[in-house]
Specification:
Elements (H helix, E strand, L loop, with lengths): L1 H13 L1 H32 L8 H12 L1 H17 L4 H11 L1 H6 L3 H8 L11 H11 L1 H18 L2 H5 L6
Helix pairs in contact: 2-3, 2-4, 2-9, 4-5, 7-8
């Protein structure tokens, strides 16, 4: 099993630019969800007015984007696990905590719960309303990780052109 992990991490390192770029692009899609959350759900709750009311088609696109969160969590977690393999440091541990707190939000405190709570549909759940704010906070913990992932992508692309990463793999 150790050789399989070694082979995986060797492959991951060889294709780091591509891996970090895919993770960053998927992560940027999550910003659409965070914008909707802030401009519609939070704004409606705090000031009584929504600043974005997406059409039905756009709403469905947001739902699809929201489901890319699981591949994002996995691919970006690999970035930090790879960094921790090279030596323990506080930043990757903190980023993994921020990032993987999303699992709590995905499987326990859903967006539907937040919207229902904020719309006054308290009967939709027996959980306290403060959990809606906890779910929102968890969602926005992604922002420092998004920034760091984008920064890593820019650094990787500058070091090695993305075209080189997409080219046919070299035989080692």
């Amino acid at each position: 099993m150790k050789t399989a992990w070694s082979a995986f991490w060797a492959w991951y390192e060889r294709h780091y630019t591509l891996n970090v770029s895919v993770a960053a692009v998927l992560f940027v899609l999550q910003l659409v969800h965070l914008y909707w959350l802030g401009a519609d759900v939070i704004a409606l709750r705090l000031v009584g007015e929504s600043y974005w009311d997406p059409s039905d088609a756009l709403q469905w696109a947001i739902y699809v984007v929201d489901y890319t969160e699981i591949p994002v969590l996995l691919s970006v977690s690999l970035l930090y696990v790879n960094e921790l393999r090279k030596g323990a440091r506080a930043k990757p541990v903190l980023m993994l905590l921020f990032l993987n707190s999303q699992w709590l939000h995905i499987f326990w405190i859903t967006d539907e719960f937040v919207v229902n709570r904020f719309s006054g549909d308290a009967a939709a759940s027996s959980m306290p309303a403060v959990l809606a704010w906890v779910a929102i906070l968890i969602d926005y913990l992604e922002l420092p990780v998004v920034y760091d992932t984008l920064r890593r992508m820019v650094v990787a692309v500058r070091r090695r052109r993305l075209g080189d990463a997409l080219a046919a793999p070299r035989e080692d």
